[in-house]
Amino acid sequence: FKGVCLNPKSKLSDEQCKRIAVGAMYASQQGAYQNSVETGISDILPKILGEWWGIETTEAARKELDYLCGKGYRYYFPFVYQAFLLDGVTGWDAGRICFLARACCEMGYISETDAWKYIDIAYNMVHAEFSSWEDMAMSYIIGRSLWGGKGAYNSVMKSTADELLTHVNSPWRKYAW
Hints:
Elements: H1 14-20, H2 24-30, H3 45-52, H4 58-70, H5 77-80, H6 90-106, H7 112-129, H8 133-148, H9 154-166, H10 171-174
């Protein structure tokens, strides 16, 4: 977990950076940039995509991204976690979509145009559900908890969210919801 990591060579517009900021939690987990399509971690992307996600082809990349966009963990939330006031774990799914699209683009599995399609879907998902970066962060943490249980580094994820919400260089501080 590396906190706020920015690509000094990024040429993205503020609007593009704001959209990529949806994936800032996941990017932070991996030590990836939070302000460019390039992740800056191309040396470990084969492990992340291949071993963790089972993605080694364009077809596999599209299948996983389409699954996350269409169903993801949001589908299971009402059945598993009805006690919480949030409507879902959209933040978790959206953060994963955003990071995965960037990683798949960087590895050449999908084009940058396709990556932006997925990033935009993730951005629109969270903006339809939440009214702030804080709400999205809590949704992300709950989704990750459901996914990983006690071994999901929940306290570290809360600290990561707090840093993204308060650090002067964080995309969440720079780009208003």
